[in-house]
Design a protein that fits this description.
Blueprint: H1 7-19, H2 23-30, E1 31-39, E2 45-46, H3 48-59, E3 62-76, E4 81-92, E5 97-109, E6 112-120
Parallel strand pairs: 1-6
Antiparallel strand pairs: 1-2, 3-4, 4-5, 5-6
Amino acid sequence: MTTTVTISERVEGLKEFISDGKILEAMDEFYADDVVMQENDEAPTRGLSANIEREKEFISLVAEWKWTKWHATAVNDRENSSFVEYSFEFVNKDGDSVVYNQVAVQRWRDGKIVFERFYHG
């Protein structure tokens, strides 16, 4: 018997990983080898390895992960796309509290994210 995992189920799994602070583990589980990720209008980062390195740079700034709040999620199975709106707070290495509010738009192929763009202020 073949079980098909929906994009909705994958999004919920991704949210669990992120909420638990398992960012790098999420990259391995939910992102395709040829993933393209982009912050706002910055140049995209191509490939899983390059994006893992980019995430490692971000994680190196974090002294403590405080919380993640999920505000909205939508999935369009026909378009193989999803979006999540969320906020998170962390304490950086300088001891400053940082809060991000952002939206991530994702395109999926075979249960993996192949494109993700973050929109934030």
